[in-house]
Amino acid sequence: MTSDASTDGAGRGWYLYGVVRRPGPQGQGRRVVGLPLPEIESVEQGDLAAVVRPVALSEFDPDVVRRRAEDVAWLESVVQGHNDVIAAIHENSAILPAKFGSIYACRDDVAAALEGAQDTLRQRLDSLEGMDEWAVRVRAPRSAIDERASQAGAIRELEAEVAAATPGRAYFLQRQMERHLAARIDGAVAELGQLAYEDLARFAAESEANPSGAVGDEVEVLKAAFLVSRQDVEGFLAALHTLGDRIPGLTASYTGPWPPYSFATLPEGAP
The dihedral of CA 247, 138, 188, 177: what is its sign? Predict the structure, then answer.
């Protein structure tokens, strides 16, 4: 929660959804229409506007939020409401989404934060215009990973040594081979993930890979977010659907389009 000693009165604050370009010369406080909640307004400063909603500060007191967060249904509802507003704006214009629960005690605080980061925010909005985020997961059968790993020359040599060794030596060679194989499996996962990442990133303006892991009998070789222009989305989706043709064994799943949550981090001190 962001605040200072003064408020706009009656314990009211301003819940921030995100930052957009200023849509026109109208004055402060005008209603933002076409959104899931009717009371949403704008705080305008320079070329930018913050999309806000008046709220009771008591509702977002840290202790109150901590207690209510234990109610999973309530938490899911308010987070979904936050995301619904951002998604509705994103359909028509670029938005820098704010983190859930960003509260300002008065409008002047919001305006001051906009004023202090005008250039950075404008540049980031420019880079996000006409862009959507796509979340992608790429998997490979565990059998394909194991086969790829066991094809290493060192593994084949150790297998031959184990077969010819005495029982005592065979035990130590077997342990050595298991360590080599584990390293090779990690390498095979990383290699396939990198191949998939590079294959898909050629359609994206920006991309971000995250840690991946095993999923049942499959191995998740890549978990990534891609920022894709709407002009390039057909090529991107075609590449997802045919990924296994170019890199045998891989299958991709995805969700989107989303607002650019992974690529729209507000700079320090901005709203």
Answer: negative
